[in-house]
Amino acid sequence: MLLVANVLELNGGTTFILRVAREFEKRNKKIGVLVLVDKVDEELEKSILQYADVYYLKDIVGKTYAPLMRSPLGVFAPVDFSKVCNLINTYNNHVHLMGVFGLIFIKRCLCAVSVKVRISFGIYHQNEVMYDGVSYYFARKAKALFASLPAESIVFFNEKNRASYEIFFNNDYSKSTIVPIGIDTPQTEVELLGSAGSNRIVSIGNLYAFKSYNRHVITLLPDLKKIRPELVYEIYGAGEYEPELLRLVSSLKMESSVHFMGSIAYEDIPKVLEGALAFVGSGTAILEAAALGVPAIIGIESTNKPITYGVLSDIKGFSYNEFDAGQIIYTMKEVLVRIISNADQWEEAAVACKAKSKSFSIERTVDGLLKLEVLDMDLTRFEAERYVNSIAVSSFLACAVKHSFFGDKTFATRREQGTLK
Questions:
Q1: pTM
Q2: Boundaries of each Glycosyl transferase family domain copy (predicted)?
Q3: CATH number for the 2-182+366-416 domain, one of 2.60.120, 3.40.190, 3.30.300, 3.40.50?
């Protein structure tokens, strides 16, 4: 499998690549990783290289266009696609895409060379392709290319996403793959890493507006401290939404109780969570917390109100990131109060979350990905979908200019649209 990634920055997608590569290696298989944009966390890169071959688009396009590789603009640059074709052939003719720019890149490849290929596309964020109101050609074409893929090509990481995409794209995805966004679950039973006597609520993850749970916990903290005066909220991560959160903290006069700890290395997550009272969040970080025996409260993304499905063990299946009116909903305050007020309920939640985390094992994820290696896929519609790179690059440049000088962030903020259907 050749996995096409946007970047190798410190984020959930890159740590997922590390876990997938490590699990493939355990099965005596090696994946390739093609990185489109030259943004790399050196420590994660070093870890991934222990288990996978890593290639960079900047090395394929050559020195002339290398300066473009610091942004997605490089995806539209002239490429010797025979080199990409060789990579595809090396890794069992299976290309796994992690985003819209990878989709555009592979379409360009198939327009340029003839190569036998299986394409799978993972929905790593619900709004990666499911978005409205973005009129640029490259963004509209990405949606059209996605819609032209057969259902067998699509990999969903929860049931809610598949249902939403079926409605949004008016496609039947019943033949798609659903696997968990897997983590490395402990192979032996270990004691609970959290502590009912702690005063630390923890969140881990890059700071973006769609991760609305950070804002909600900060807003709830004054009331929670009436129950537990020494309570603190530790936020590990960095991002563009940090200034907004800092202003909120200041307005509530909570500077001594909300601690912005900055980014941490992936392998330091257990150290951070040791002795934590509770975790609030989404993505794979909530799974890591649950697996370590910390009550893991679900932070539903893109919500205006402080609501939750409860702790991880309260959900059925794999759906927890996105808003789903069909699930039982609680206020975040009532769930936090229950956990911080009662040691028995704390332990019950910690044990249940730890048990639930086992269903999100990376072994199950890789089992699903390996099945795609031998699946027949009819890419006729994808290959027939018209794509003009000169129009695409012009539209991307227009998008970049309007974003930088006129505040048009419709594409950049598409992940804040939430559950559209």
A1: 0.88
A2: 197-298
A3: 3.40.50
